[in-house]
Amino acid sequence: MTRPINGLSHVKGSTARPLINATIPGFMAEVRRRYGDRVAAVFSQTGERWSYHDLMRRVDRLAAGLLSIGVYKGDRVGIWSPNRPEWVLAQFATARIGAILVNINPSYQSAELHYALHHAGVSTLITAPRFRDSDYLAKLQELAPELATARPGHLQSEKLPKLRRVIQLGGDPMPGAMSFDEVMSRGGAAPKARLDGITAGLSPDDAINIQFTSGTTGRPKGATLSHRSIINNAISSARAMRLTPDDALCIPVPLYHCFGMVLGNLAAVSYGVKMVFPGEGFDPLATLKAVEAEGCTALHGVPTMFAAMLDHPDFDRFDLRSLRTGIMAGSICPAPLMKRVMEGMHCRDITIGYGMTETSPISFQTAPDDPPARRVSTVGRVQPHVECKVIDTEGRTLPVGQQGQLLTKGYLVMKGYWNDPEFTAEAIRDGWMHTGDLATIDAEGYCQITGRAGDMLIRGGENVYPAEIEELLVTHPDIAQAQVFGLPDARLGEEVAAWIILRPGAALTAEALQDWCRERIARFKVPRHIRFADDMPLTATGKPQKFRMRDMMCQDLGIAIPS
């Protein structure tokens, strides 16, 4: 069923196994019944170990605690935190009562945080105090100075009028906030009957998660996912890896991504797998230690993460023979790296996945028995219950092997962009999600991603949209024009580059501009390569020619010009 239809670049996944028509809490009740005494989660940094019974008891306490402070079905609950135990609890506790979890990138700066909270109408924010060099509490106090005098749970903020409650993870809560432990204690011996009654009133098609993904317009858009879409995508990816309850999955990827919370957490619980979290953020040494200590059989990551582990000076002292599978996604895996992962890390059955947040996320995935050549040149074949096709600019389905835009259809397509009907209508037409990616599908149904219809670049697995950065750069008082694009990078796949035209008489250095950017956008979006010029190459109609700028910068920097 995964072979192309009628010689066209049009494939449909198997429907042999029916989709699960359940909510996350309904699904988790069955998981608890089957696997209750098995280890559910290990947090290497804190030393915590939970069984599935422990996990669900904590989830119910948090769910009841959230109810007690006024969080109900449909309310948006933001989480701004790296990978901590509380993140996992929040994922399942919000689903338990039908609240919508809003994932917030831990790298966000104040303006990005404000937009996400305001646009999604977040009424409750669960936040870590800080992550790395970012002081979350200071940023919140900057956005909502009213916290200083607010009674916890009763915030009235001019800039964030919907935000009422701030829940702080760890330490004494700042003025106006309540502690996570306090909310948990309010749950007490969770009134299970009340929680079960709420769960019974939920629908598998209810919105349960909003994940912000920047667009080519530069404005972040909130992809809205349902119980049904992410449960079934998690199950499909777990089956592709051939996971069983005897497996242990190491999850060093961030939970705010679909990669972490769907392909990691949900995929693991769907088969009673042990989840292993090495730390708050990716660290190659901590990940290697966790894999060895817990006998992990599966490992997730983007190619740069696998490369960082393989290149670590202490790599050879770790016994990784327990490893077998996992998912590598986010960008293309070079053949030499795939060979090292399969041989040096023993991940013989590692799979490659392709998708996007808007499709919950995976639509194509390789199989463990696909030859290595398929795993480096393609993203595999279409997932069950998913339909994909490649079209030309007129919307016609192309013959096998021809390049065009990839479209995806099925249960996995998002409900829409939160509060953005125009962008939703543009992205989803007749049920087809227009990915913006260029692709080919061969005669055996394997898909190859060949480029992007838009300007998006992928830096170390992070999607970077030039328009967003360009809009920021031109707000600098010294900058007249700015164009942003990607340059090839051996470690990260692509690196952010900027072509800048200054205002007359202005003097600005690359270092000063980078420092200015770091205060306003996530670090992975800050241009690494900056060229100051008097003009820029243009088309006859006056449009910037980014490909010429890219080639000129590559030549100046001694980087091989992409074909």
Automatic annotation (TrEMBL):
Keywords: Ligase, Magnesium, Metal-binding. GO terms for molecular function: medium-chain fatty acid-CoA ligase activity; metal ion binding. It is an enzyme of class 6 (ligase). Residues 468-543 form the AMP-binding enzyme C-terminal domain. This is 3-methylmercaptopropionyl-CoA ligase. Homodimer. GO terms for biological process: fatty acid metabolic process. It catalyses: 3-(methylsulfanyl)propanoate + ATP + CoA = 3-(methylsulfanyl)propanoyl-CoA + AMP + diphosphate. Its EC number is 6.2.1.44. It comes from Sulfitobacter sediminilitoris. Its cofactor is Mg(2+). InterPro entries: AMP-bd_C, AMP-bd_C_sf, AMP-binding_CS, AMP-dep_synth/lig_dom, ANL_N_sf. Belongs to the ATP-dependent AMP-binding enzyme family. Residues 32-418 form the AMP-dependent synthetase/ligase domain.
